[in-house]
Amino acid sequence: MAREKESERAAEAEGTPERSYREQLDFLNPIARPLASRKLTRKLYKCIRKAAKHKQIRRGVKEVQKFINKGEKGITVLAGDTQPIDVYCHIPIMCEDRSLPYAYVPSKSDLGAAAGSKRPTCVIMIKPHEEYQETYDECLEEVEALPLPL
What is the pTM of this model? Predict the structure, then answer.
Protein backbone atom coordinates (compact mmCIF):
# COMPACT_ATOMS: atom_id res chain seq x y z
CA MET A 1 0.00 0.00 0.00
CA ALA A 2 2.73 2.45 0.95
CA ARG A 3 4.77 1.51 -2.10
CA GLU A 4 1.81 2.27 -4.38
CA LYS A 5 1.46 5.76 -2.92
CA GLU A 6 5.19 6.41 -3.30
CA SER A 7 5.11 5.30 -6.93
CA GLU A 8 2.07 7.52 -7.58
CA ARG A 9 3.88 10.51 -6.10
CA ALA A 10 6.94 9.78 -8.21
CA ALA A 11 4.78 9.53 -11.34
CA GLU A 12 3.12 12.86 -10.53
CA ALA A 13 6.50 14.48 -9.98
CA GLU A 14 7.78 13.16 -13.31
CA GLY A 15 4.63 14.31 -15.13
CA THR A 16 4.93 17.89 -13.92
CA PRO A 17 8.60 18.70 -13.45
CA GLU A 18 9.33 21.79 -11.40
CA ARG A 19 10.82 24.63 -13.36
CA SER A 20 13.86 26.41 -12.03
CA TYR A 21 13.83 30.12 -11.20
CA ARG A 22 15.59 30.89 -14.52
CA GLU A 23 13.05 28.89 -16.54
CA GLN A 24 10.15 30.62 -14.77
CA LEU A 25 11.52 34.02 -15.80
CA ASP A 26 10.69 33.16 -19.44
CA PHE A 27 6.95 33.30 -18.66
CA LEU A 28 6.88 36.71 -16.92
CA ASN A 29 4.50 39.53 -17.82
CA PRO A 30 5.93 42.83 -19.05
CA ILE A 31 4.54 44.57 -15.92
CA ALA A 32 6.24 42.22 -13.42
CA ARG A 33 8.42 44.89 -11.79
CA PRO A 34 9.85 45.00 -9.11
CA LEU A 35 10.72 41.31 -9.39
CA ALA A 36 11.99 39.56 -6.27
CA SER A 37 15.41 37.91 -6.56
CA ARG A 38 15.72 34.14 -6.14
CA LYS A 39 16.76 34.59 -2.49
CA LEU A 40 13.97 37.05 -1.70
CA THR A 41 11.44 34.80 -3.48
CA ARG A 42 12.39 31.93 -1.16
CA LYS A 43 12.09 34.20 1.89
CA LEU A 44 8.66 35.40 0.76
CA TYR A 45 7.44 31.81 0.24
CA LYS A 46 8.72 30.92 3.72
CA CYS A 47 6.93 33.93 5.24
CA ILE A 48 3.73 33.02 3.35
CA ARG A 49 3.88 29.45 4.71
CA LYS A 50 4.23 30.75 8.26
CA ALA A 51 1.44 33.31 7.76
CA ALA A 52 -0.86 30.64 6.32
CA LYS A 53 -0.37 28.52 9.46
CA HIS A 54 -1.63 31.44 11.56
CA LYS A 55 -4.39 32.42 9.08
CA GLN A 56 -2.73 35.81 8.45
CA ILE A 57 -2.89 35.93 4.65
CA ARG A 58 -5.32 37.40 2.17
CA ARG A 59 -5.52 35.36 -1.02
CA GLY A 60 -6.91 36.32 -4.43
CA VAL A 61 -7.49 39.58 -6.28
CA LYS A 62 -10.94 40.26 -4.85
CA GLU A 63 -10.00 39.69 -1.22
CA VAL A 64 -6.68 41.56 -1.40
CA GLN A 65 -8.32 44.50 -3.19
CA LYS A 66 -11.07 44.69 -0.56
CA PHE A 67 -8.62 44.78 2.35
CA ILE A 68 -6.29 47.28 0.65
CA ASN A 69 -9.32 49.58 0.27
CA LYS A 70 -10.15 49.04 3.96
CA GLY A 71 -6.65 50.19 4.89
CA GLU A 72 -5.11 46.90 6.00
CA LYS A 73 -1.30 46.84 6.12
CA GLY A 74 0.97 44.08 4.82
CA ILE A 75 3.27 42.92 2.04
CA THR A 76 1.52 42.25 -1.26
CA VAL A 77 3.05 39.45 -3.33
CA LEU A 78 1.96 39.14 -6.96
CA ALA A 79 2.61 36.33 -9.44
CA GLY A 80 4.50 37.46 -12.51
CA ASP A 81 3.12 34.81 -14.87
CA THR A 82 -0.60 35.65 -14.63
CA GLN A 83 -2.47 35.97 -17.94
CA PRO A 84 -4.29 38.19 -18.85
CA ILE A 85 -2.59 41.10 -17.14
CA ASP A 86 -5.91 42.96 -16.83
CA VAL A 87 -6.93 40.61 -14.01
CA TYR A 88 -4.63 42.27 -11.49
CA CYS A 89 -2.82 45.22 -13.08
CA HIS A 90 -4.62 47.69 -10.77
CA ILE A 91 -3.26 46.14 -7.54
CA PRO A 92 0.27 47.68 -7.75
CA ILE A 93 -1.27 51.13 -8.31
CA MET A 94 -3.48 50.70 -5.25
CA CYS A 95 -0.43 49.62 -3.22
CA GLU A 96 1.59 52.65 -4.36
CA ASP A 97 -1.27 55.03 -3.50
CA ARG A 98 -1.41 53.63 0.05
CA SER A 99 2.39 53.23 0.45
CA LEU A 100 2.17 49.46 0.78
CA PRO A 101 5.20 47.38 -0.25
CA TYR A 102 4.70 44.92 -3.10
CA ALA A 103 6.84 42.56 -5.16
CA TYR A 104 6.40 40.07 -7.98
CA VAL A 105 7.48 36.43 -7.81
CA PRO A 106 7.86 34.34 -10.98
CA SER A 107 5.23 31.62 -10.47
CA LYS A 108 1.56 31.64 -9.48
CA SER A 109 1.56 27.88 -8.86
CA ASP A 110 4.47 28.20 -6.41
CA LEU A 111 2.69 31.14 -4.75
CA GLY A 112 -0.45 29.03 -4.28
CA ALA A 113 1.59 26.09 -2.98
CA ALA A 114 3.34 28.32 -0.43
CA ALA A 115 -0.10 29.38 0.84
CA GLY A 116 -1.02 25.73 1.37
CA SER A 117 -3.30 25.40 -1.65
CA LYS A 118 -3.23 23.17 -4.70
CA ARG A 119 -4.77 26.01 -6.69
CA PRO A 120 -2.48 28.66 -8.25
CA THR A 121 -2.88 32.13 -6.74
CA CYS A 122 -2.01 35.40 -8.46
CA VAL A 123 -2.06 37.77 -5.42
CA ILE A 124 -1.40 37.27 -1.70
CA MET A 125 -1.15 39.81 1.09
CA ILE A 126 0.93 38.83 4.11
CA LYS A 127 -0.27 40.46 7.32
CA PRO A 128 2.19 41.05 10.20
CA HIS A 129 1.94 38.75 13.25
CA GLU A 130 4.14 38.33 16.33
CA GLU A 131 4.72 34.60 15.69
CA TYR A 132 6.80 35.22 12.54
CA GLN A 133 7.68 38.91 13.03
CA GLU A 134 11.41 38.43 12.40
CA THR A 135 10.87 36.76 9.01
CA TYR A 136 8.21 39.32 8.12
CA ASP A 137 10.51 42.24 8.98
CA GLU A 138 13.33 40.78 6.84
CA CYS A 139 10.99 40.42 3.87
CA LEU A 140 9.50 43.88 4.43
CA GLU A 141 12.95 45.49 4.50
CA GLU A 142 14.07 43.77 1.30
CA VAL A 143 10.79 44.40 -0.57
CA GLU A 144 10.90 48.11 0.33
CA ALA A 145 14.51 48.25 -0.93
CA LEU A 146 13.44 47.05 -4.40
CA PRO A 147 13.31 49.86 -6.98
CA LEU A 148 9.79 50.84 -8.05
CA PRO A 149 9.01 50.79 -11.79
CA LEU A 150 8.91 54.09 -13.62
Answer: 0.85
